């Protein structure tokens, strides 16, 4: 049974129970009002007052008398009809002969009243006790309540059941939409499906919004996974094609040892290229796989950078001078294994894209506010065109992929950026084509 139906049934059941209770209550009140003849009260109060009248020393005492009780007004008159004391329902007195022991209906103005008189015979004369009560009294009020109950109750029932159903419908329709979208994304048939909930309860709009953002991230990550796989296979296809072609050529055309060695060298180049690519692919995937598993600690950075530069061996032997200016006592929060890869990649690039007899300058200092370590790797090599500056961080992107094996696979800087992002730092480049590039890395020290 759906929650929508359950809520509607629950509201219906509760409303029906309440309606039954109210109707039962009204029936009880109705019966009670029929059983309780209002004139009983009139007669009762007059009789009661008649027993309380006292007469001594030529005066009446009315201290104990009830002039008004339960809707009955009581007044007292002498035997000849002169008013002594009492309470009246109207400001104007009405003239009515006294008639002992009889209930009479009287109309005064537009209102109906019951009147009951009783003559009390005292030793020195008599006293009339008159009780007056409104004929409209309880019965009219009760009948109005009953009429209202019987007309309003069904309307209230219809509204509350209808309203309950509407609220349940509005609350649960988005849940079905969310489930449908999740199903279609889960089955992989439509990764672009979104809930796009614009109407409905606020909480549901929030949940739908969160799901939409999650679906967008999933789509993005599926997309980049797809692009990554296709780019990786594309990158591997080129060296494999070259290796196969070279093998074929060697078998058919190489006659001398030199010819063979040429072919083997070409194959070795491509093998190395594949090895770099596979190594970087592995590094990237390990990085993503272990993202939260890398420990970051605040540690001395100056000595660490010095050691990295000391141990650095360029892949290509070129006459490029490496100078450094590492400020002492600089700390940062980093993972040494990951940071080694960053420095290695930036230095290898500076060598690769540096110019012969050029310079590489590596520096480390604290930023002005003291919250970050700032590492710079600067070369005076080929530089990067302004329009390419944003592209260099993309996976497999290379300004000139035909530079041969040493040009790498276009994954190095993607790796650098990923690592620095994991550290909560920033990496950016300042470069002028033909003049050189400076890669700047900032690492927080807490
Ligand atoms: P690659 O393996 O091609 O070096 P990277 O991701 O390390 O891949 O770099 C991407 C591209 O950025 C390179 O192909 C190159 O065009 C450019 N690049 C990187 N570093 C430098 C640099 N120091 N000077 C000039 N261009 C650079």
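^ Assign residues to that structure.
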């Amino acid at each position: 049974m759906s929650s929508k139906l359950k809520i509607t049934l629950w509201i219906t059941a509760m409303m029906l129970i309440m309606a039954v209770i109210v109707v039962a209550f009204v029936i009880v009140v109705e019966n009670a009002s029929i059983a309780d003849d209002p004139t009983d009260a009139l007669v009762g109060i007059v009789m009661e007052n008649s027993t309380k009248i006292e007469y001594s020393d030529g005066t009446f005492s009315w201290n104990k008398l009830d002039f008004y009780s339960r809707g009955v007004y009581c007044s007292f008159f002498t035997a000849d009809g002169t008013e002594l004391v009492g309470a009246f329902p109207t400001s104007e007195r009405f003239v009515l002969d006294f008639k002992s022991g009889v209930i009479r209906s009287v109309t005064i103005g537009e209102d109906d009243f019951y009147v009951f008189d009783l003559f009390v015979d005292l030793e020195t004369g008599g006293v009339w006790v008159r009780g007056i009560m409104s004929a409209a009294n309880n019965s009219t009020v009760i009948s109005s309540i009953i009429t209202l109950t019987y007309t309003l109750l069904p309307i209230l029932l219809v509204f509350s059941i209808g309203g309950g159903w509407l609220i349940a419908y509005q609350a649960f329709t988005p849940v079905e939409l969310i489930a449908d979208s999740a199903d279609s994304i889960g089955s992989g048939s439509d990764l672009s499906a979104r809930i796009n909930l614009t109407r409905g309860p606020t909480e549901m709009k929030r949940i739908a919004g969160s799901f939409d953002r999650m679906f967008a991230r999933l789509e993005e990550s599926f997309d980049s996974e797809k692009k990554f796989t296709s780019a990786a296979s594309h990158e591997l296809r080129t060296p494999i094609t070259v290796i196969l072609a070279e093998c074929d050529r060697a078998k058919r055309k190489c006659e001398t040892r030199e010819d063979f060695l040429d072919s083997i060298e070409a194959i070795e180049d491509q093998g190395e290229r594949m090895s770099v690519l596979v190594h970087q692919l592995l590094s990237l995937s390990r990085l993503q796989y272990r993202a939260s598993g890398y420990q970051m600690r605040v540690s001395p950075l100056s000595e660490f950078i010095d050691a990295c530069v000391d141990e650095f061996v360029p892949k290509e032997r070129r006459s490029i001078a490496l100078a450094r200016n590492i400020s002492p006592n600089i700390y940062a929060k980093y993972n040494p294994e990951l940071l080694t890869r960053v420095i290695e990649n930036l230095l290898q690039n500076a060598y690769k894209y540096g110019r012969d007899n050029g310079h590489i300058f590596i520096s480390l200092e604290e930023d002005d506010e003291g919250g970050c370590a700032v590492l710079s790797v600067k070369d005076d090599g080929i530089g990067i065109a302004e329009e390419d500056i944003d592209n260099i961080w993309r996976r497999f992107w290379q300004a000139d992929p035909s530079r041969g094996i040493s040009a790498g696979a276009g994954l190095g800087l993607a790796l650098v950026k990923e690592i620095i992002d994991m550290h909560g730092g920033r990496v950016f480049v300042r470069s002028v084509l033909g003049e050189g590039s400076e890669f700047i890395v900032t690492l927080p020290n807490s």
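Helices lie at 3-35, 38-52, 137-186, 202-253, 257-289, 302-311, 336-352, 412-422.
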